[in-house]
Protein 1
Amino acid sequence: MFQNQKVSYSGVQPSGNLTIGNYLGALRNFSTYSEDYKCLYCVVDQHAITVRQVPADLRRRTYETLALYMACGLDPEKVTLYVQSHVHEHTELAWILNCFTMFGELSRMTQFKDKSAKHADNINAGLFTYPVLMASDILLYQTDVVPVGIDQKQHVELCRDIATRFNALYPDTFTIPEPIVSKSGMKIMSLSEPTKKMSKSDENPNAVVYILDDKDTIIRKFKRAVTDSDTEVRFAPGKDGINNLMSIYACFTGKSMEEIEAEFAGKGYGDFKLAVGETCADALAPVQQRFAQYMGDKAGLEAQMKKGAEEASYIARRTLSKVEKKLGFVQLR
Ligand code: TRP
């Protein structure tokens, strides 16, 4: 569909508070990705309403997410960045795919089980069919690869099953997508419980460093990071706290563990934590500056959304029309 270029597609929840884990593990590498693939990134506002949202917050976060992605280096001239609700084909294909997805399959989704336990007062049908909308997102663009976190792999596998089933009945409709799960080596752990992954929804604000945290906050959080009772900056089994800080420092500076050990030989944890905090804050400063610039220009962001939606719609329309024709829907010209 794109002159033989492979398609990479990913969806992101409209949430402005992404962490340095998201930054180091994913966002920072997006621009290199766009050299090899035709990339589409969608802000999935329709997925977001499967749990209750405050309208003003959802709207603001949609802008913020777009601005943050651009601030991290996604160039809208090279990749398609758009908002899900701006391309109506997503929900139209979702209805169709609902008729090719089994109740039993959706019942087995771990995220559904987790979310319905967490939101026991609102186990709505949208929460249940969430993976079908996600499958539509992916399949509309004849996607080859889907970069996702490990928690979303099951959904991509379901998407493959749905597409395979559909293709068996109506040959050559969809490309079968492949999940790409980012390397576990990029795992950034919580600063207060370094055996747990750093999560944007952690209740302890000291455990997480957000991309948009200011310098003082970042330094304070690193100072408070949990470490062991040893004093040497050394990467070793069992030293989860220090290992995590060293990994973060390595990611930001490109230094190896040996280089870091040499740099801090004879210095204590205090000096090291301060260095990690300062390095992290300095690396994020330009991202934050660009973010503020983009957020200060709502009209500019809206123009980007519009451009992205037009690019996406063009492809989505073609796939949907192919699907409807195969199904036997009457097409008016
Ligand atoms: N469900 C994904 C998440 O919560 C977001 C998402 C929606 C997505 N549609 C997608 C990811 C399509 C990849 C492809 O993270």
Protein 2
Amino acid sequence: MSTNVVSYENCGGIGLLLISNPPVNALSTEVITGLRSAVSTFEAEGETKALVIYCKGRTFVAGGDIASFESPEFDTRPFSSLLTRLDAFQRPVIATLHGTVLGGGLELAMACHYRIAVPDARFGMPEVKLGLLPGSQGTQRLPRLAGVPLALDLILSGRFLSAPDALAAGIIDEIVDGDPLALGIAAAERLVRTRTPVRRSSAMKVVADAAATQALARAAAAAGKKPAYPALGAIVRSVEAAVMLPFDEGEEIEAREFDQLRVSGASKALRHLFFAERTAARIAGPPQAVGAREVRSVGIVGAGTMGGGIAMNFANAGIPVVLVETSDEALERGLGMVRKNYEASAAKGKLSAEQVQKRTRLLKGSLDYGSLSNCDLVIEAVFESLQVKKDVCARLGETCKPGAIIATNTSTLDVNVLAEATGRPADVVGLHFFSPANVMRLLEVVRAARTAPDVLATAMQIARRINKVPVISGVCYGFIGNRMLEPYMRETEFLLLEGALPQQIDAAIESLGMAMGPCRMSDLSGIDIGAKVVIGQAEAGALPPDPNYRVVVRRLFELGRNGQKAQAGYYRYEGRTPLPDPAVATICADLARQHGIVRRSVIPDQEIIQRLMYTLINEGIQILDEGISYRPGDVDVVWTAGYGFPDYRGGPMFMADQIGLSEIKDTLDHFGRVRGNEFGYWTPSNLLKSLAARGQRLGSWSKD
Ligand code: COA
């Protein structure tokens, strides 16, 4: 028996069931149909002594097919009933495991009677990251095999276990190095020869001791604090059912919980992001057959906070880095900061002494540009000034070897201008890291007008190597993320002038799930930083001709209220704790008087949310229209990976579809009417207008 994705053969009295569904052997409907048919064949062959299940390619089954969850007909029960059939065999069923044995893959393995794994196999239940739970008996079998505390921990966190840890936990039975198929056959022959009775995980008793009760109570309390993630509570209830009820009753509760989670907004959003992150890593447009350039060593110019953080990413990935500075003191300060960061991680037990040593050994400092001449990639991370960066780029153009890539970490300057300054613009790309650069997952990869295709391909590849989530942006002021932040900050300041308080604005925005409201965020990143950007744009004549535009941040800066580091900004601070500061209301009231702005005593939270978020969304759609970003999902990845946008809302473009594009357009029009639209703040982008008119969603829109 064989289908495209599942084959079965009888090899000397042992049934061999092979799953072959690249890239990760996900359980598509076709795979499940193939499995059922193969199991029926084995069932019918009464003389076949054992069944071995194994997978082709890089991994055993890495889970259910996430794309299939979108189908209204999706049901976990056909797969669960197949697992029940496997479990019930009197003849041994063996799973032979390699790669990442995840979700439905681990459920399949746990339904088998014996699990054998290669040493580097890894195990996990990552469904929670998709807002789901293991829906095919996983919440019932794992507590039976591994105990309630560990099962809860694994299912609630989605973290992976190594093979030795899985063995110690009782999740697998044996670790042996070798070819998965040969290992499976050997284990099957041994189990048959020794007449080892089959061991069914469904028949095991769940240990319901005090540790189990405490773990459940703790998990229930933690889940109660995160109502935006309904999967957490559902997982606790399902594991509790494993403790309290017979297997089949627990299984039914789990299936019902899964059904509800699958159609929940949170899970839909998280599934959208799963694919959006992976799609963002692919270069949009017609596929180009370009290879990437090789990157074996990296140079960084500027050992400030940014340069040091960027350097750590490469050292962490085992790539040697040379950091270049202009003075001994600056270099020593930069390298010292990196060492301190590593030592802090070691003190928290996140890194071993050996890892710290290995990473610091990969970092070298130098005062000589000549030491960059052999680097494959050089990133400039110097002071954000056009002249300074142009000078550095010109020097790099001369110093770097032919074929080396020159990247700029600018966040506000024109990458095309910097690229020309090198004299070799095809080699130039923007790499916009976010601070702290060693922590933040997002990397905006800026494609300049003349960036060579293989340079872009290399940038995307290296981003993945250093564990970043890369998103391509075209050249524009602020790229994707900071450009969308502009209307959001503009409306924040207008609302402050009209009478809203920083704490009210932050609370309204945080109620949406944003990690931090705009005022707290500005205080953290530095009022001076924000003000200098506005002042720089004013000097460049790039501000709207609106005398009221961003006057608050400029006044706070004049007053030295530079944010958390100055213990005063939009808030006053006790340590890191922001406290409402009546002085800020006075500053805003004075500014409002000077600028003739009418203050209101009540500003509804809904108005705050609409004015900040709908203008931000409108800017995102404009960015798509201009081709600065190619896909709505890319914009969502920028905001969820880099700006604290709640993942359970899927990002601003996904959220726009949930709100309805017509509703957003109509609301912008409404504000334009009531507030006046002299500066175009409320003009819906053409793309928003046309999508709204056609009743189309961003989710089904594409640039091509
Ligand atoms: N269903 C459908 N497609 C899946 C998938 C799944 N469960 N898991 C991975 N894929 C696809 C990815 O979308 C990607 O496709 P693409 O190449 O077209 O972009 C491809 O498989 C490779 O995945 P990727 O994540 O890029 O590779 P990786 O080697 O970094 O990681 C995994 C592999 C399996 C560890 C990772 O993909 C993963 O964690 N998958 C999700 C597992 C999961 O949640 N399982 C439970 C589902 S309920």
Protein 3
Amino acid sequence: MIHDSPKNTTASLISPDIDHHQVSANKPVKLGIMASGNGSNFEVIAQAIADGKINAQIQVLIYNNPEAKAATRADKWGVKAVLLNHRDCKSREKFDGKVAETLKQYDVEFVIMAGWMRLVTQVLIDAFPNRMINIHPSLLPSFKGVRAVEQALAAGVKITGCSVHFVSLEVDSGEILMQAAVPVLPDDTSETLHARIQVQEHRILPMAIALLS
Ligand code: GRF
């Protein structure tokens, strides 16, 4: 478990109730990480494991975009990176079937969607029931789906943030595990706001995973 009190008073933690997820307290949790792009969240997870803050090991990174920088980061950390390109599959279900098969092949117990930019189907949910979490750059249930930071700016909210939640079929709608709040500043662009949200993502995603380990 991470014993790290929040250093930033703009952040708050909510509802870490995970008793029913039955992950062993002793053995490292075997993680599968899914990412489509930059992979900064992948890297903070790898760092938190290296620092002994999470009792886990990363079995595999799955990425769906050949250009994803996440794959380069996985190489750097000695983590196997598997490209599964959704463009090669005829349906979302077939693609998720391949993803599930690969995760099982690598003996994954728990799945972390860290910037996975694909809608999931029941095929994947059935393969890892209550065993998949996602990080989203808003205070859910506000601003679900794509361009969440832009949605928050357009709505004129003064506070937004990020959420770690369990994955369900409806996008960004599963049980919330942890959240952090971030103020919206008067001159914010989507880039500046997203950068501050990511600072908080990098805090709460490892903390949420620590709750599972
Ligand atoms: C994060 O903002 C996450 O909330 C969203 O996609 C972004 C991924 O960032 N789902 P990175 O690829 O981990 O840097």
Protein 4
Amino acid sequence: MIHYKSPQEIAIMRESCLLVGAAHAAIVPFLKPGISTLQINQLVETFILDNGAKPSFKNYHGFPFATCISMNEAVVHGFPSEYELKDGDIISLDIGVYKNGFHGDSAYTYAIGSVTEDVKKLLRVTKESLYLGIDKARAGNRIGDIANAIQEHTEKKNGFGVVREMVGHGLGRDLHEDPQVPNYGKRGSGLKLKEGMVLAVEPMINLGVKDIVHLNDGWTVLTKDRKTSAHFEHDICITKGEADVLSSFYEIELAEKKNPNLTWSYE
Ligand code: MG
Ligand code: MG
């Protein structure tokens, strides 16, 4: 069942979604070789709690941490650990917050030190595909229009692998609501988009094959060929015109540019 949001509910949701971006931006200065992913998780969790919110992921179906941290060949749902960041790593950080009865959910992938040109391109193209998908997300279009725009750019045009098993989703009082938002599909197919729908759009794109495998921790998803995977996620509200992007990368990108330990993948 799809829960359409009123303008009042959107105003509350925007606060949750922006808080996720602020949590990302707050952690960016700490991203450098030597910090462990558990330390990153702890900093994010403290930031969320200090801002009167709760981490959405903690205890969600038993997930044990506040954040999902997926390194390199990990696609999504990775566990924070003692692993310390090193030059050439990429780290996908997925953060969810629950505040005033609504969730925000946004992921971003960071490149530590210098990464290969291939990986840099993967990050750039994945982020571009997110915006190309969002550009199709407007009332009267269909889910398949979003999905197709993402797949065309990443798979058809750039030869990357689009993960099939994991998809975007509706967002609201629940972290995962209907409908599902795949990152592959036919133009003009699927559910019709209507005003008031809130969607988390989140391309998960692999440098190599699209196939994935599951680690036996019950959560972590890896690429089958162990090549790198990237993940960017925005929360959007459908309107008659351009989608209203509730989350924001603005502060994250500013913080990224100020951190000499990061390579950013855009101009
Ligand atoms: Mg997420
Ligand atoms: Mg999500």
